[in-house]
Amino acid sequence: AGDTFTAEYVEFEVKRALEWLGADRNEGRRHAAVLVLRELAVSAPTFFFQQVQPFFDNIFYAVWDPKQAIREGAVSALKACLILTTQRETKEMQKPQWYKQTFDEAEKGFDETLAKEKGMNRDDRVHGALLILNELVRISSMEGERMHEEMEEITQQQLVHDKYCKELMGFGTKPRHITPFTSFQSVQPQQSNALLGLLGYNMPQGFLSFGATPVPAKSSLVESRYCRELMEERFDQVCRWVLKYKTCKNPLIQMTILNLLPRLAAFQPHTFTDQYLSDTMGYLLGCLKKEKERTAAFQALGLLVVAVRTEIQP
């Protein structure tokens, strides 16, 4: 009886949230819908999976929303659903269309003509499209994502260490920069730092976990072979899209590009090095000269170095 109730409850909530997305825009309902969908995808994946196609048919209404919080909430729900679909892939199943459908939606975001017809703001549209691509690349490269998470862990540990030292010395504790790589969540001192090993360091774990508080372990990383095949086929197109907007002054677009470029480099390091590394380095060096983007640019540069290894010369 419990499972029946849960299945009916999840079905009801998912359908209601999707109806809110597909209806005329109501900011409050649309924002609530993406938050509910994400939580259901994470907390009740078996039942949510039964509604997965309607999810992909409706979530992009919110991805193209003019409000940043709704766009990012929708992409967070999309991320949870992509993890869910990846975990349920089997060799026997037919090639799913969800990844192609998602990629096609991102492509619409870069279509100037289509955007004008729908009256969409260019920067909002491009930001949404880049966020979609970021999730498709994330789910296509498990090794690249492992590097990305370990860089974030190191950054969080450094924030904790700096905060502790400032408190010890009597200085203020507010950090100067917040980037897409960082948050103020506690870090995980019990986890190994493979990234440090790749960079040639052998620091005692106690140093990195100085002042840290353990939290539950992260969810296991996953990789979709179907999405990987798709993104390998479209890799050049994706890189061209991303680099096309490197001169855009919108800070949301800039931060998303800084997040996305290292993922692309880790996904296809040889192709990226041969064709896009020079432009990327020029872009990152330019970002280092801008105070607001400097921290994120340094972190993107660090991830890029790990991804392409010896291809970057001093």
Automatic annotation (TrEMBL):
- InterPro entries given for it? ARM-like, ARM-type_fold, DDR_Repair_Kinase
Q: Which Gene3D superfamilies match?
A: Leucine-rich Repeat Variant
- What keywords were assigned to this record? Kinase, Transferase
Q: Which GO terms describe its cellular component?
A: cytoplasm; nucleus; TORC1 complex; TORC2 complex
User: Which molecular function terms from Gene Ontology are attached?
Assistant: protein serine/threonine kinase activity
Query: Which biological processes are named by the entry's GO terms?
Result: negative regulation of macroautophagy; TORC1 signaling
The protein depicted here goes by the name Mechanistic target of rapamycin (Serine/threonine kinase)
Tell me what organism the protein belongs to.
Nothobranchius kuhntae
Its organism's taxonomic lineage begins at: Eukaryota, Metazoa, Chordata, Craniata, Vertebrata
Which gene is annotated as encoding this protein in its UniProt record?
A: MTOR
